Amino acid sequence: MNFNAANQILSAMFEWTWRTSLHASVLIVLVVLIQIAGRKWLAARWRYALGVLILLRLLLPAVPASPFSIFNLGKAVLPIEPQIEFGVVSPSSQPKAPSLPAVPERDAPLSVGVGIEQKTDWLKVVRVLWLFGLTASLLTALRQHRKFARRIAAEPPVGDERILSLLKSCRDVLGVRRRITAVIAPQPGTPAVFGYRKPRLLIPETALRKLDDRELRMVFLHELAHVKRGDILLNWAIILARSLHWFNPLVWLALRRLRADRELVCDAMVMARLADGERRVYGNTLIKLLDDFSGAGFCPSLAPVINHKHEIKRRVTMIAQFKPAGRVAVLLSAVIVVALCCFTFTRAAEKPAKKPAEIREAKHPEAQVGLESLKKLLEEEDAKVKEAQGRLDKLRSELRISDSLTEGEFLGEGRRSSGLSPETIQRLELERMSAEAEYRRLDSLSRLLQSKGESELQRIMNVAVPDELLTSLLKAKAECEQRLANLGSRFGPENADLKGVKEELSKINEQINWRVEGIMAGLRVRAEATQAQIKSLNYAVDEARARDAETVAPYFAAKRALENNQKLRDAIMRRILQETVDMQLPGAKPLEK
Question: Are residues 559 and 416 in the same domain?
Fold first, then answer.
């Protein structure tokens, strides 16, 4: 293959990449808006389906033209995209460049030829930079995979029959027929599945010490859900899409949301196979694993239980509010997916080119005068934008506000606040959820125990609320009853020893009743203390946000003013570009000096 052929293939691949990235960005914005609007009724699997649509759009080599495509709205700004198949641009589909009229050499600007040559060189540099980024990203991913694979291959498999039996039962629950090898590994910090052809379940030593069998079962079910769904292959598809479109921050955001939604889908699969009482245990297990989470990054062949700490709040909330999606929500979600495919998995329909006579009729002799006025107006608006940006930067520095904070997040949902750091918000939310779960447990346990009779309460109390003193009393009661039975079989009811044992048994029963009443009272006190803790946490967050509302308002006013100035400046720039292009079309007169 000669240099010219390689250069043509590189040019075709680069053109397909930036056009696909541009069109996928529109789909990303639509999907984010749909997910925000349908946050309450859109099920996890449908949120994940929308993310998969974005991934497919980023990797599709070609899409058909359609009059229903949303990109028909942008044909006035962007040229008709060429149809690219197997990395080669079809010559019949390339837009023909209009021939410029001959301009006398004395009237032509000196920089015309130089500008074209510089533009060509600039495009070559951009293509090479894109290829360098693509290669570096793919090589980095392959290096991470090989390095991690060698480290895991050196670890011996688990031989504990308890772990192997628990893993087999979880495989039977999910219907996973593939052989899974369990490995004790010090890293990563949370359990994970590694590899696709020969998947291995990585279990850190800290998790084995911290989690009991019931909690380990939840973790195994989550990781086996990754195996059943083939999420390791999805990781490699994400790596490929992210490498091709490494220059687009929206793609990074969309693929990160796709991985987060994937965890919600796996959580939903696990929740569908758990009893109502086990769902709280599943949420508490995820919170327990946070302590040892290392955040080592994204490895292509790794699917851990936890990807990012800030996703735990969203997952625990979904677990607490889990319920099957209704028929209306499922139908509406399917309609949205089909509509997005129709509108965004197509390209703009081709329009017949305008005739030279029509173009000449649209020309105006006064175009140059209007162009100069627009340039002057652009300079004034650009100065206003710089001034507004300076005011905004000053307020941001004084108030210590993150640039990513939006007014809707602050005033509407109150998910973030300049007075509280994201780490503090996360810690308070986790404490509040833990306190609420503890309160519900204590309250339900207290109500259940109150409904039992005295004899039944004595039998189950030590199981429901383990207590050393109650254990010793029950043991003494059992020994006393045994002695009473032995004496009763040998002596009559008037025997002195028999009467003494009966009195001792009566006293022990009385002490047991006092202890049971004390434990019940302790449960109620703990429930009331936990409820007070919940109110205190809610009050702390609300008070901090109320203080911020008074100080952050000027910042958002300055931010809106800056956005308005930027929109006006961009509109003027588009108008100048349109006027400049119109004057270069065939039949245009030389610019007036």
Answer: yes
Residue type, 73: L
- Write down the pLDDT at residue 298: 65
Residues 88-127, buried b or exposed e (16+ Cβ, 10 A)?
ebeeeeeeeeeeeeeeeeeeeeeeeeeeeeeeeeeeeeeb
Looking at the structure of the chain, the number of domains it has is 3
CA distance 339 to 346: 11
pLDDT tens digits, 480-500: 888 888 887 777 777 887 788
User: Above 70 in pLDDT, residue 250?
Assistant: yes
Whole-number Cα distances in Å, 356 to 122, 129, 294, 417, 585: 31, 39, 65, 58, 9
Mean pLDDT of the chain: 77
Residue whose tokens read 């198949």: 85
Spatial separation of the C-alpha atoms in residues 541 and 432, rounded to whole Å:
11
* Amino acid residing at 322: F
Q: Which pair of structure tokens corresponds to residue 319?
A: 């677990």
How far is it, in rounded angstroms, from Cα 263 to Cα 193?
13
d(CA 193, CA 203): 9
pLDDT for the residue numbered 94: 43
Cβ atoms of 250 and 26 within 8 Å: the answer is no
Under DSSP, the state recorded for 195 is: -
CB 193 within 8 A of CB 199: yes
The answer on 327 and 261 residing in a single domain is: no
Question: What does pTM read for this prediction?
Answer: 0.52
Q: Assess whether 472 and 542 both reside in one domain.
A: yes
pLDDT over 90 (residue 444): no
Looking at the structure, do residues 315 and 424 belong to the same domain, yes or no? Answer: no
For residue 261, give its domain range.
Answer: 151-320
> Which alpha helices (DSSP H) does 175-248 contain, by range?
205-210, 213-229, 231-244
pLDDT digits (tens, 9 = 90+) for 160-187: 888 899 999 999 988 888 888 899 876 6
d(CA 271, CA 222): 9
If asked whether residues 327 and 456 sit together in one domain, one would say no
Question: Is pLDDT above 70 for 412?
Answer: no
- Residue 111 included in any domain: no
Question: What mean pLDDT is predicted for residues 517-526?
Answer: 86
Whether residues 160 and 309 share a domain: the answer is yes
Q: Are residues 413 and 338 in the same domain?
A: no
User: How far apart are the C-alpha atoms of 404 and 386, rounded to whole Å?
Assistant: 20
Residue recorded with tokens 């020994």: 479
Tokens 């292959």, residue located: 233
Q: Which residues make beta-bridge pairs with 192?
A: 202, 304
In a domain, 566, yes or no: yes
Cα separation, 181 vs 177, in Å, equals 13
Q: Can you give the CATH number for the domain in which 280 is found?
A: 3.30.2010.10
The burial of 6, by beta-carbon neighbours within 10 Å (0-12 exposed, 13-18 middle, 19 or more buried), is given as: exposed
Q: How many angstroms separate the CA atoms of 304 and 201, rounded?
A: 10
**532-559 pLDDT, tens digit each:** 888 888 877 777 666 666 667 777 788 8
Side chain identity, residue 34: I
